[in-house]
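Might I ask for a little of your time on a matter of protein folding? The record follows directly beneath this note:
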Amino acid sequence: MLSSYLAHLAVERGLSANTLASYRRDLRRYVEHLRSRGLETFAQVAESDVVAFLAALREGDEDHPALVASSAARAVSAVRGLHRFALREGVAGHDPAHEVRPPRQLRRLPKAITVAEVERLIAACGPEDSPLALRNRALLEVLYGTGARISEAVGLAVDDVPTGPARDEEPGQDGDQDQVRLRGKGGRTRIVPLGRFARKALDAYLVRARPRLAAHGRGTPALFLNARGGRLTRQGAWEVLQAAAERAGLSGVSPHMLRHSFATHLLDGGADVRVVQELLGHASVTTTQVYTLVTVDKLREVYAAAHPRALH
């Protein structure tokens, strides 16, 4: 039953390998929990058994450390999905996990760096005309300029980005060749505009750097290459960012922080939250709305400056 559910998640839901590994680990622990209570079939499980599992997750035991709310919530989500699947497949006649809610998590606001800090970060790639410096600048410009996840950026192929001379378009004009195709979670593909700075950095990389890097490899359609001519890995991209952050005097900068900064700066500039949702590739606007909390200070500044009776 468990293997059938995991196969369902992989094939029909398109979950990533990392998410599947987490679900497999959580559900194996759940099955062990049920067996320890003398339960061998899903038809025997009661709501109290699921609640006891949640309590065990939060308390921990000799073999398992206590889980924080976010990890426990993920495990409960996996269990709820498993029981829904069992009911749908006719393995059980009821869903004992239907009313069990995951533990509430403290809302953590996304961290963002300022526009000036983004500029320092990108400038720290170095002015030198080396292939790696050109690649690094293009990578960081794409991460910040599109809000791409690091996996989406390193997963890009040359065919996913515009090639050929950039066009200087008037504001408001559509530029089909100034877009990038990103492949996100669940196999979803989205088209995101590519700003002039990112386009210029990509053009420089594609013309003056990538051919030299590719000469060391065996040929790959990947956009971003490592020094050996192969696809740049997530770890390699992380190291590029960390090195630039260190040279720029910035600490705690991560690829996801650039994604947060992309969203926050768009909202600060007046973008609609649903537009930002589409650009980020969020399935639900609820996920995107957390960024609106980051901009409260900005809204207060605008209110204080613009409303005639705001200041006392």
